[in-house]
Design goal:
By secondary structure, the protein is an alpha/beta fold. Helices cover 38% and strands 23% of the residues. It is built from six helices and eight strands. A hairpin with a 4-residue loop joins strand 5 and strand 6. The radius of gyration is 18 Å and the shape is globular. The N and C termini lie far apart (37 Å). The model has no long low-confidence stretch (mean pLDDT 88).
Length: 240
């Protein structure tokens, strides 16, 4: 990384979907301020997974030659979840909770509109993350920033990946107009911003797997009206 260029690694996954038949959808994840922090956590997380993975394999034999299953939130035992939550208390974890009952029918009734609303929600989430990091003096808005953004692989419609990336850069560096409400949201960055966006298959990436558990637990606790008990979350948003 070039000197004076800040780094930010963000990993996001979802739990639930934006749909009228679902009570809510959640996007959650984890971030790191540099590669060293990221690599240290990956080592800890892999050690944690290696210690429990045989419990989730149908063969239940240690050091076997079978491919290990992906340990998703819906499969993980509560005991293991509690251990992971303790580990995550020292990390920057975040989530946005979308109450589907408050979304307009105009959005819910069209697949393309739901896709755009999903991207809008993720954009606002990332913006709030950056604003918090600026307030906490973790990043400087006047210095170049490189964001490595990784999201769980999904079906992209209407060239969403390209449009999503363009909207992120535009809102963060040039500001965004909301024509419907006659509003203007000023930029939050005043230097060069580069975003490396990729959609990943969670089966092959442990940090997306970790984001899946963060999103899943947030959704589970929200449905039980116990979100405040998730002390590992450093940032939580509610939408709309």
């Amino acid at each position: 990384m070039t000197k004076n260029v800040q780094e930010l690694y963000i990993y996001i996954d979802d739990s639930g979907v934006i749909h009228q038949n679902e009570p809510c959808a959640v996007y959650g994840g984890i971030l790191f301020l540099n590669m060293v922090e990221k690599d240290i956590f990956i080592k800890k997380y892999r050690k944690f997974l290696n210690g429990i993975k045989c419990k989730y394999c149908k063969y239940n034999v240690e050091n076997c030659h079978h491919k290990c299953p992906e340990i998703k939130d819906t499969l993980m035992y509560n005991l293991h979840k509690k251990r992971l939550m303790e580990m995550l208390k020292n990390e920057m974890c975040f989530a946005v909770i979308i109450n589907n009952q408050k979304i307009s029918k105009e959005i819910l009734n069209k697949k393309s509109s739901r896709g755009r609303y999903r991207d809008y929600t993720q954009r606002i989430l990332i913006k709030r993350i950056l604003q918090k990091l600026i307030v906490d003096q973790k990043i400087n808005p006047n210095l170049p920033l490189q964001i490595i953004l990784r999201l769980d692989k999904q079906v992209n419609i209407l060239n969403i990946e390209r449009n999503f990336l363009n909207d992120l850069i535009k809102e963060f560096t040039k500001g965004m107009n909301n024509i419907k409400y006659f509003s203007y949201f000023p930029p939050i960055f005043h230097s060069r911003l580069n975003i490396d966006l990729k959609y990943l298959n969670s089966k092959n990436h442990v940090l997306i797997q970790c984001a899946d558990i963060i999103a899943g637990e947030t959704r589970r606790y929200y449905l039980k009206k116990k979100v405040k008990e998730l002390t590992f979350l450093k940032l939580i948003l509610y939408m709309p």
